[in-house]
């Protein structure tokens, strides 16, 4: 889960075709435009500063937001000016300010009642009773909300504190001393693979296709000159371990925004970025490639809207995404980012439906049409099969028990068996009951603790029931293009022209044998995960 070494020459996206499969890949999409690095963004993230024109822009932006409109960013404006559709989008149909979690309308008995003659005395009694009941309902609701909030905060705090406490051990240690160096390298290679395959946009992919053609042939037209760069948002960026991978992305990155609730991790990410920028820690990197602009901010990306993050406002954020969003909003709206990435993090959102939807609103609100949402997370197919296997074995043991030993003796408490599995380097433990058939319904709040040697100490995580998740993404105009278990990715890509050699440079493939350089235990730990890519449509 750390920065990867080596350099990968650009990898061509494979031709697109929407499908979800363990064996099939897919690729690129959407529009492009010219971009220039924007040094304005070097300023501090919290307080607007700089020349008057910029301040005025900020004021206008705030006024517009008050009116319910987010003006296009310097970045998104450049994109939109290219297309007549986009050019009119911000002046187009006004958008309703709507939250997918909007409270329902007040109950009908809040409406004014017509008085009946002679009903005055009775009304007084009824009203007092109704009011008492309403007050009780309100009190109960408040208590439940407070309990839920403190429970949620409890888990979030544990997660945040855990990641803050994970020491940053340095690249050399990770490559030589670590007991899971094979797994670390493999995870990094999978993340690089996703970035290489899915971060470029359609035009970039097409331009590269043409690049390999014979330009001496006049009928081909001029070679591509487009240098459109990517705007990337990383949800749960941790210590910035993927910065190096983005530096090697086939289509250059203009802006990388890293968000994470763990403040110490964010400081470390900022330091890592600063040292990359200054040229320290650049071993093996393309020396001439100027580093993209980077911004890092402490932020809970699943419990809160990202609409109040300044850099996100600048790039463009659409608050009107999600179920019930108008056709107009889905046609004209959208954020300004080309790629949203969330590596090993979205499972924290599955604590509740509210958080999962908030995460999806953030993704869809930040992503432009045709933008890609890429990530990796635990594979619920693996969890389902482990859980149903556990119940099957338990039932088998119970059926095999002799009749007289059924049930605990008087005063004895039979310990409930808990579902858990793992090996020396990783362990998954469900503290509570699990579904007999392994199907997680409703799909939220299925907590387990996850342990990974040297990396994660029994941290609470939540199952991401894949089918339910995929169904939910449709509400946010996110279309699944790719989903693949980690070890299948290896099988499919290990001989790729770019990704094969990259795996050698990263120490993932044994140079002598060509085999995957992981122990059996590491392979089992890796098989817990899968990777995905959605397109915003
Ligand atoms: C296993 S680490 C992965 C870090 C990084 N993405 C990587 O691949 O190296 C999981 C990250 O998710 C972050 N995380 C947990 N809850 C989050 C939330 N609500 N919003 C954003 N990130 C969160 C953690 O703080 C942690 O940095």
TrEMBL record:
InterPro entries per the UniProt record, alphabetical: mRNA_G-N7_MeTrfase_dom, mRNA_G-N7_MeTrfase_euk, RG7MT1, SAM-dependent_MTases_sf
Cellular compartments annotated: Nucleus
EC code(s) of this entry: 2.1.1.56
Residue stretches of biased makeup (Basic and acidic residues): 125-155, 205-216
Keyword annotations: Methyltransferase, mRNA capping, mRNA processing, Nucleus, RNA-binding, S-adenosyl-L-methionine, Transferase
Domain of life: Eukaryota
Segments forming domain MRNA cap 0 methyltransferase: 178-537
Region Disordered, annotated ranges: 1-162, 204-227, 393-417
Matches recorded under SUPFAM superfamilies: S-adenosyl-L-methionine-dependent methyltransferases (SSF53335)
Reaction(s) the record says it catalyses: a 5'-end (5'-triphosphoguanosine)-ribonucleoside in mRNA + S-adenosyl-L-methionine = a 5'-end (N(7)-methyl 5'-triphosphoguanosine)-ribonucleoside in mRNA + S-adenosyl-L-homocysteine
Site (mRNA cap binding): 239, 245, 272, 347, 461, 529
Residues holding mRNA: 187-188
Biased composition (Acidic residues): 407-417
Cellular component GO terms held in the UniProt record: nucleus
Pfam families (UniProt xref): mRNA_G-N7_MeTrfase
Leading EC class: transferase
MF terms (GO), sorted A to Z: mRNA 5'-cap (guanine-N7-)-methyltransferase activity; RNA binding
PROSITE patterns for the chain: RNA_CAP0_MT (PS51562)
General function of this protein: Responsible for methylating the 5'-cap structure of mRNAs.
Family, as annotated: Belongs to the class I-like SAM-binding methyltransferase superfamily. mRNA cap 0 methyltransferase family.
Full protein name: mRNA cap guanine-N(7) methyltransferase
UniProt source species: Penicillium frequentans
């Amino acid at each position: 889960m750390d920065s990867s070494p080596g350099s990968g020459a650009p990898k061509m996206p494979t031709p697109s075709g929407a499908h979800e499969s363990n064996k099939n890949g897919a690729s690129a999409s959407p529009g492009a435009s010219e971009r220039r690095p924007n040094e304005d963004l070097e300023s501090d993230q919290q307080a607007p500063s700089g020349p008057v024109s910029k301040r005025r822009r900020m004021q206008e932006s705030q006024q517009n937001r008050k009116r319910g409109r987010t003006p296009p960013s310097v970045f998104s404006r450049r994109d939109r000016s290219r297309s007549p559709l986009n050019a009119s989008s911000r002046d187009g149909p006004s958008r309703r300010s709507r939250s997918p979690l909007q409270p329902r309308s007040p109950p009908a008995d809040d409406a004014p009642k017509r008085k009946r003659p002679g009903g005055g005395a009775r009304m007084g009694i009824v009203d007092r009773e109704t009011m008492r009941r309403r007050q009780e309902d309100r009190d109960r609701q408040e208590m439940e909300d407070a309990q839920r909030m403190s429970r949620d905060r409890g888990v979030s705090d544990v997660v945040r504190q855990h990641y803050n406490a994970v020491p940053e051990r340095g690249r050399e240690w990770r490559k030589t001393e670590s007991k899971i160096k094979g797994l670390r390298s493999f995870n990094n290679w999978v993340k690089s693979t996703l970035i290489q395959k899915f971060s470029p946009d359609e035009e970039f992919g097409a331009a590269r296709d043409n690049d390999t053609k014979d330009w001496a042939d006049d009928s081909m037209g001029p070679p591509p000159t487009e240098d459109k760069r990517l705007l990337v948002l990383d949800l749960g960026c941790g210590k910035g371990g993927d910065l190096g991978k983005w530096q090697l992305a086939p289509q250059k990155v203009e802006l990388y925004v890293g968000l994470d609730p763990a403040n110490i991790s964010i400081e470390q990410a900022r330091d890592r970025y600063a040292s990359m920028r200054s040229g320290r820690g650049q071993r093996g990197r393309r020396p001439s490639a100027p580093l993209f602009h980077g911004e890092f901010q402490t932020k809970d990306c699943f419990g809160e809207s990202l609409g109040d993050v300044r850099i996100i406002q600048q790039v463009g954020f659409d608050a009107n995404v999600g179920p019930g969003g108008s056709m107009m909003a889905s046609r004209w709206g959208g954020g300004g980012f080309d790629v949203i990435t969330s590596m090993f993090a979205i499972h924290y959102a599955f604590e509740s439906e509210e958080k999962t939807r908030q995460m999806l609103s953030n993704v869809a609100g930040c992503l432009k049409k045709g933008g890609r949402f890429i990530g990796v997370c635990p594979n619920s197919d693996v969890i389902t099969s482990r859980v149903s296997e556990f119940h099957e074995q338990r039932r088998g043991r119970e059926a095999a028990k002799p009749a007289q030993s059924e049930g605990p003796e008087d005063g004895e408490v039979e310990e409930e068996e808990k579902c858990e599995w793992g090996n020396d380097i990783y362990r998954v433990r469900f503290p509570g009951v699990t579904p007999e058939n392994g199907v997680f319904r409703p799909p939220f709040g299925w907590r387990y603790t996850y342990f990974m040697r040297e990396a994660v100490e029994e941290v609470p995580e939540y199952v991401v029931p894949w089918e339910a998740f995929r169904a939910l993404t449709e509400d946010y105009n996110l279309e699944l293009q790719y989903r693949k278990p980690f070890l299948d990715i290896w099988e499919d890509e290990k001989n790729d022209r770019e990704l094969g050699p990259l795996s050698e440079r990263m120490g993932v493939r044994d140079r002598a044998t060509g085999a995957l350089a992981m122990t059996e235990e590491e392979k089992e730990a890796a098989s817990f995960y899968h990777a995905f890519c959605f397109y915003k449509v």
